[in-house]
Design a protein that fits this description.
Elements lengths: L2 H8 L4 H9 L3 E7 L6 E5 L1 H6 L32 E2 L3 H17 L2
Antiparallel strand pairs: 1-2, 1-3
Length: 107
């Protein structure tokens, strides 16, 4: 999922939430969506599954289960709009350097 996908579901800005989940290693960047802007695509980690006591992502409830009957869920998840490409080695290295610098700056 991209940040915009998550914001569409939650209805609020999720920059802080994503930063926190990344810092806790509950999610990771798995690629970029091939649409304008090439946003990062986030995926869960093994730690996420362990933390929530799940054997696989198949055990998660479907997103539709969270939507009330009188609400329309206007989110296109896994709709095939734009393909996801893995990060290049250079992009992965840049992310790792950025993460290391961020950790060094934290008091």
């Amino acid at each position: 999922m991209t940040r915009i996908d998550i914001e569409a579901i939650r209805g609020v800005n999720v920059d802080g939430v994503i930063k926190s989940l990344l810092e806790k290693n509950l999610i990771r960047i798995v690629g970029r969506k091939e649409v304008i802007g090439r946003p990062f695509v986030y995926g869960t980690t093994r730690l996420f599954l362990d933390y929530f006591g799940l054997k696989s992502l198949a055990e998660l409830p479907k997103i539709e289960e969270f939507a009330q009957q009188d609400m329309l869920l206007d989110v296109k998840l896994a709709s095939g709009e734009g393909e996801i490409t893995p990060l290049s080695k250079e992009e992965e290295e840049q992310l790792q350097i950025g993460e290391q610098n961020a950790h060094q700056q934290d008091p």
